[in-house]
Design brief:
Blueprint: E1 11-14, H1 21-51, H2 58-75, H3 78-84, E2 91-93, H4 94-127, H5 132-135, H6 138-163, E3 173-174, H7 181-185, H8 193-226, H9 230-259, H10 267-290, H11 292-310
Parallel strand pairs: 1-3
Antiparallel strand pairs: 1-2
Helix pairs in contact: 1-2, 1-10, 1-11, 2-4, 2-10, 4-6, 4-8, 4-9, 6-8, 8-9, 9-10
């Protein structure tokens, strides 16, 4: 990943979340707990779904892939952030910075598309239940996951193709705990207005397009559920509530960043933390605590291990 001869910046300085030693210790304790819980929780969901034949359905196949993306998203920058709490001079190489930009946008783009696929799965399950098994077969699920990763990677490459050759010739301080694309672009020794517009358009189109598709899908689903008897709609509503909560908490900060990507406030740093560290924790919390099938599988898996230990 070479950069042009005009670039003399070989590393970037990450200013982190705070310069206070006490606050950094506090953040380390909190974010370590959140990160470990997030990774273990998502691994648990993948293990439960893969080990229980009763969860061998398209919804859970997509959910396990969502958990995998969440593990990746929480791990692209968080481990370095935790280590940097104990380092006075927080730096990252030029190549490492570009890698963080690539990974973040790949994972976020993939997750957006996967959430749309999960909404489509719920749409077919609730609005066309008699055709569900015919339409939502394993082949279509694999296609959905493949498209999600392809779109995420293409979305990321389109950003990186322009960023990697920008002339960085002096300023190298990034006011965040990771290489945030808008903050890195601002350090280039050139007029970055066109780059800012391209970034806004690229990211805005995919996030807004996915968000609108999700809103329309869930409105249609909610109308369909509302017309059904309450006894049949309670389980559907429970599942939908988890889906809609994840969508709102995922897209909320995302759309905020893309509406004002180059006008940063001090609170934006902590929204970035929520987006990259805390959001991946939503998947295991919302889907495991609200889903009776997952909770039942958790109990069976736990009992199986308890019995194996006793024997």
């Amino acid at each position: 990943m070479a950069h042009t001869n005009e670039s003399v910046v070989s590393e970037f300085v990450l200013l982190g979340l705070s310069k206070s030693w006490e606050l950094q210790l506090f953040f380390f304790a909190i974010f370590s707990l959140v990160y470990v819980t997030s990774v273990l929780g998502n691994i648990m969901i993948i293990v439960i779904i893969s080990s229980d034949s009763h969860l061998n359905s398209p919804m859970y196949f997509l959910l396990s892939n969502l958990s995998f993306i969440d593990i990746c998203q929480s791990s692209f920058a968080t481990p370095k952030m935790l280590v940097d709490f104990f380092v006075e001079h927080k730096t990252i190489s030029f190549e490492g910075c570009m890698a963080q930009i690539f990974l973040l946008h790949s994972f976020v783009g993939s997750e957006m598309m996967l959430l749309v696929a999960m909404a489509y799965d719920r749409f077919i399950a609730i609005c066309k239940p008699l055709h569900y098994n015919t339409i939502m077969n394993r082949r279509l699920c694999i296609i959905f996951v493949s498209i999600s990763w392809a779109v995420g990677i293409l979305h990321s490459v389109s950003h990186l193709a322009f960023t990697v050759d920008l002339p960085f010739c002096g300023p190298n301080e990034v006011d965040s705990f990771f290489c945030d694309l808008p903050l890195v672009i601002e350090l280039a020794c050139m007029d970055t207005y066109e780059m800012e517009i391209m970034t806004l358009t690229n990211s805005g189109l995919i996030s807004l397009g996915c968000f609108l598709a999700l809103i329309i899908s869930y409105i249609i689903i909610l109308i369909t559920v509302h017309r059904r008897p309450s006894s049949r709609s309670s389980k559907a509503l429970s599942t939908l509530t988890a889906h809609i909560t994840v969508v709102i908490l995922f897209f909320g900060p995302c759309i905020y960043f893309y509406i004002w990507p180059f006008s940063r406030l001090s609170v934006d740093k902590f929204l970035s933390v929520f987006y990259t560290v805390c959001t991946p924790l939503l998947n295991p919390i919302l889907y495991s605590l609200r889903n009776e099938d997952v909770k039942s599988s958790m109990r069976k898996l736990r009992n199986r291990h308890v019995n194996s230990w006793k024997n």
